[in-house]
Specification:
This is Aminotransferase class I/II-fold pyridoxal phosphate-dependent enzyme. Keywords: Aminotransferase, Pyridoxal phosphate, Transferase. InterPro entries: DegT/StrS_aminotransferase (IPR000653), PyrdxlP-dep_Trfase (IPR015424), PyrdxlP-dep_Trfase_major (IPR015421), PyrdxlP-dep_Trfase_small (IPR015422). Belongs to the DegT/DnrJ/EryC1 family. The protein starts with 15 loop residues before the first helix and ends with a helix. A hairpin with a 2-residue loop joins strand 6 and strand 7. An eight-stranded mixed β-sheet has the order 1-9-8-5-4-2-3-14, with helices on both faces. A four-stranded antiparallel β-sheet has the order 10-12-15-13. It has two domains: about 230 residues, Type I PLP-dependent aspartate aminotransferase-like (Major domain) (Aspartate Aminotransferase, domain 2, 3-Layer(aba) Sandwich), CATH 3.40.640.10; about 120 residues, Alpha-Beta Complex (Aspartate Aminotransferase, domain 1). It is an alpha/beta fold. The chain is built from 13 helices and 15 strands. Helix 1 runs antiparallel to helix 8 and helix 3 packs across helix 7. It binds pyridoxal-5'-phosphate (PLP). The site of pyridoxal-5'-phosphate has 14 residues, from helix 3.
Length: about 375
């Protein structure tokens, strides 16, 4: 095998160029136009959200959501610890303080027990968080019923970071539609891509109108250029949205392919004592954006990192699970709440993301499996 086997790469469906060409034909080479409108409509229809606004990135979506929820300097925002840094960076953009919450081992996502602990501690301090950022890691929905019940009890709004979980379901409802705001990412490595882009969704149409205003420099309704609040330049280009339109047509197909990839790994490796595949919570539908597992190094005689390195030597791209935010130098001063044990640290130290590229051939996947088995 000479060709590199990738973790997750862009996979075009075929109609993307037609929509991009449409943008050229009509000269809508701008961060607005028909592709943007149609792409938003598709995401609304697919997710069942009442309103959507296309943005230049998922990070921009989280930034705008927190801004609209009134997060300001020295405010506190709770956030999942086991995630990519983009979930937490916007908290810093607003001068607020992140407090990190551990995962549970059933969902790998925010633990309701740890969240309750954090609320109790901050209630005692007399400092309620302004928002909670809940991440749906690798395409698995968090325990939304339990988490929403806690946030509702304390009357704190939720931003659902569904950057990795477009197409996943929780009790029959689309991931990203549980919080006050949901955020999707169309970065190059995500389940579908616009080469770079994002979307903010909500059932509050007025809030999405405000998001649109924020994303376009917060211009007041006036012929002259007038501004009364801070805004950003965060709108999605009509060219990128053209790619998004084509990608939405193959989203369900991609979810099916991702799940097939996971099932093949599961069949080959799942029964091995010492390997634990990432679970799928009961009554949820995982989009399996990345196939992930943990390796018990004592039972297996190898560490997760050694597996990743062995695969790299064979031109296979695998990765450790995200390094938790509470272990990052950037957030060394931040508070962290876990259950009894530090689960996200365990998942980071023992977890592996396997190649989950939908362009990967069956032969290539069997090669990956062979290389893993060879080592253990
Ligand atoms: C990719 C990602 C983001 C950010 O999306 P961008 O479009 O790259 O800005 C946010 N959160 C998580 C969990 C992600 O994986």
């Amino acid at each position: 095998m000479t060709e590199r086997i990738l973790l997750s790469s862009p996979h075009m469906g075929g109609t993307e160029e037609k929509y991009v060409q449409e943008a050229f034909d009509t000269n809508w080479i701008a961060p607005l136009g028909n592709n943007v409108n149609e792409f938003e409509k598709q995401v609304k229809e697919f997710t069942g959200s009442k309103a959507a606004c296309a943005l230049s990135s998922g990070t921009a979506g989280i930034h705008i959501a927190l801004d609209l929820l009134g997060v300001q300097k020295d405010d506190v925002v709770f956030c999942s610890s086991l995630t990519f840094i983009a979930s937490a960076n916007p908290i810093l953009y607003l001068g607020a303080k992140p407090v990190f919450i551990d995962s549970d081992l059933e969902s790998w996502n925010m633990s309701p027990i740890a969240l309750e602990k954090a609320f109790k501690a901050y209630e005692e301090k007399g400092k309620m968080p302004k928002a909670v950022v809940i991440v749906n890691l690798y395409g698995q929905s968090a325990k939304m019923d339990e988490l929403m019940a806690i946030c509702d009890k304390y009357n704190v709004p939720v931003v659902e970071d569904a950057a990795e979980s477009l197409g996943a379901l929780y009790k029959g409802k689309m991931s990203g539609t549980f919080g006050k705001f949901g955020i999707f990412s169309f970065n190059g490595n995500k389940i579908i891509t616009t080469s770079g882009g994002g979307m903010i969704v909500s059932d509050d149409e007025e809030m999405i109108q405000k998001a649109l205003k924020k994303a376009t420099q917060a211009r007041d309704q006036a012929v002259h250029y007038q501004h009364s609040e801070v805004g950003y330049n965060y709108r999605l280009s009509n060219i990128s949205a053209g790619i998004g339109r084509g990608q939405m047509e193959v989203l369900e197909q991609r979810v099916n392919e991702k799940r097939e990839i996971f099932n093949r790994y599961d069949e080959a490796l799942g029964a091995i004592d010492g390997i634990e595949m990432m679970p799928e919570l009961a009554d949820t539908y995982h989009n399996r954006w990345l196939s992930t597992l943990t390796v018990d190094s004592e039972k297996m005689g190898v560490t997760a990192l050694e597996v990743v390195e062995h695969l790299a030597e064979n031109n296979i791209e695998a990765r450790p699970v995200w390094k938790p935010m509470h272990m990052q130098p950037l957030f060394a001063e931040c508070d962290y709440f876990c259950e009894e044990e530090d689960n996200s640290k365990y998942l980071y130290e023992n977890g592996i993301c396997l190649p989950s590229d939908t362009k990967m051939t069956m032969e290539q996947q069997l090669f990956v499996i062979k290389k893993i088995k060879e080592l253990i």
